[in-house]
Amino acid sequence: MNNFDYLLNGFGDALASGNLIYGFIGTFLGTLVGVLPGIGPALAIGLLLPITLTVQPTQALIMFAAIYYGAMYGGSTTSILLNTPGESGSVITAVEGNKMARAGKAGAALATAAIGSFVAGTLATLLLALAAPQLADFAIRVQPAGFLALIITAFATVGTLLGSSRIRGVLSLSVGLVIGLVGADLQSGSLRLTFGSLNAIDGIETVTVIVAVFALGEILYLASRFSHEKWQVIPMGGKAMMTKKEWKRSWKPWLRGTGIGFPLGVIPAGGSEVPTFLSYAVEKKLAKGENKEEFGHGAIEGVAGPEAANNANAAGALVPLLALGLPTSATAAVVLVAFQSYNIQPGPLLFMTNPELVWALVASLFIGNTLLLILNLPFIRFWVKLLYIPRPYLYAGITTFALLGAYALNSSIFDLQIALGVGVIGYLFRRFGVPITPLVIGAILGPLAELYYKRTLQISQGDHSVLFDGLLTKSLYTFLLLLIIVPPIYRLIQRGKQSNTK
Amino acid sequence: MLSKVSKAGKGELAFAGSLFLVSLVVYWDTSKLILPTNNTVVSPRTFPYVVATLLLVASIGIALEVLRGREATPEGVEPGTPFQRADFKTMGIIVLGIGLHLFLIERTGYILSATISFWSVAYAFGVKRAARLGLIAFIFSTIVYVSFTRLLDIQLPQWILEEFLSDLGSSQ
Q: Range of A161's domain?
């Protein structure tokens, strides 16, 4: 069977009546949780994890595909009508989208976001279906040293590209690595940082970390600013529709957004901040005449482009996740954990051992994306109502589900204690401007990095030079070196130029 | 030098300082590691030492940033906004509620402990009518309990209330 046959089979699996219902449930739940203010896609999937614990792997994958796109899309509604984006990828959408809503054009903003997400999601899933098997074919020949180099690259790019301060990115990463250290060492069995606790020997559950750092951390942070914050939903007038002119202004940004978002999702560029921002900058630059003047006051291109980039980026992030087993964003990291809870280990081998699972997932992404459009545009008023849930009850509900998610995995109070501790870390990070994603990536990939490091040195009998063997490792480390050296030099040159002109 | 640091900056110094301490704890814990008797090419100590060093360097780096006057901008706040003191009362109620949840969940069952944590978060965020909120929290927790244990087969700690509910369910 070739990949196309597998994909057709995947569609057959995903569309089988018993499975399609899971797609619907996933889309519904994903959008529901994604629309709720303060819940980004990573947390949405983390919170919904317990719900999928008891279904079959194929059905769970179908649900996850639907939840993934649903949660991504749900965030745009929140940022347009509420101006409190639940996640970094929707920040740019909030800039123009919220202005459009204030100008009475909420319907058009929501429509361009929904249709743009659909267009970008479909195109990007198609690209994913083409690219992932190729990458897996290549990755099957990659040595442990190459994987180590890939992980270190992911650490560096996620750590340095995210957030305003490099040093804070590194701090977040290293705290994540410390969390990953806890428990018995995979090879020698030596106990690290367990301080005599039997529960800690198995290590810290990644789901607990994710749910706690995103949900409890955010709740505590909101509480710390409680006396200073105001919240206002902008009422939505009319229907979620676009005029002919708005269609005309939207379709090019959708395509451009897809073009920017997908490749930046494939390479470990650290989440959706960079592509959405880039797409916004491109649209602003390309806009002409009165459209250009609308930027900053609610330009539809500024919603269409970044929203498409956000979704395409999400699909792109699935390429390294499926083909290499490497998550490049917090959301992808949660999806990895979700797979692992079904004993599915993403990576090049998955394409050989379980092709039917991979292609059922890809087909589900297509279907989930389509269901999303069907569920969303006509029923947008229902979703908007969710924004009117009073804040205290919303936060109380999020806390309840976060605590439940942390507990239900192992029925263990230890996990709840960890959740509270990690929640406080999440608060401190937000308070002191430290990005969260590097922590999540570090906690998940840290143990994997150590494993590949040990494997490499075992093969070479302790000779460190093999760490740099091969074209892949050499080019990755060169890239890293450039990433570290170039910005300071660039800044020096800029400074030199400035002093010359003075 | 320290006198020039603002109040928020001092908080950040304390934050960096505590992470500095964490890195020392990792060093200490790693140095006491019992090594396996069989010969391994890479010691289980190598990686933790690297991680601890990274954390050490990063925490010192943050402290230097603060001393140079480059304090952090809290998430979602425009740079240059005047410092706002954290609302420790609201936070405290929530932490207390979650703490009680941890303490009670396996003693008095899921419903009561979840009622308490739901109540305390909503109360902290400004819900005034405490008794009515208590009722809402109780109903919410009961719905969550029933739907997770019945529909999703996820076991949650039982006590009198939960046993009563399951008796009710089985007698039907």
A: 3-469
Which one has a higher pLDDT value, A19 or A314?
A: A314
Check whether residue A482 and residue A401 sit in a common domain: no
Of B22, B98, B153, the CB nearest to A54: B153
Range of the structural domain that residue B96 is part of: 88-171
Three-state SS for A152? Answer: helix
Distance from the Cα of A238 to chain B's closest Cα (Å) equals 31
Res. A501 pLDDT band, cuts 50 70 90: low
Residue A219 to residue B94, Cβ atoms within 8 A: yes
Interchain contact, A454 vs B41, CB within 8 Å: yes
Rg for chain A, CA atoms, rounded: 22
Please indicate, yes or no, whether residues B93 and B167 belong to a single structural domain of this protein. yes
Q: Is A54's CB within 8 Å of B141's CB?
A: no
Torsion of CA A236, A237, A239, A240, to 10 degrees: -40
User: Domains in chain A: how many in total?
Assistant: 2
Angle of CA points A180, A444, A482, to nearest 5°: 105
Quick check: is B82 in a domain?
no
Q: What is the ipTM of this complex?
A: 0.93
* pLDDT one-digit tens code per residue, B55-96: 999 999 999 999 988 888 887 776 667 777 888 999 999 999
Q: How far is A338 from chain B (nearest CA, A)?
A: 16
Q: What is the pLDDT of residues A344-372, one digit of tens each?
A: 888 888 888 888 888 888 888 998 899 88
Q: Which of B28, B106, B22 is nearest to A428 (CA)?
A: B22
Q: Tell whether B97 is covered by a domain.
A: yes
Contact A190 B55 (CB under 8 A): no
User: How far is residue A51's CA from residue A69's CA, in Å, rounded to a whole number?
Assistant: 17
Contact criterion met (CB below 8 Å) for A121 and A312: yes
The interface residues of chain A toward chain B in range 117-146, judged by CB-CB distance below 8 A, are none
Q: Does B123 touch chain A (CB under 8 A)?
A: yes
Between chain A and chain B, the number of residue pairs with CB atoms below 8 A apart is 208
Q: pTM of the predicted model, to two decimals?
A: 0.89
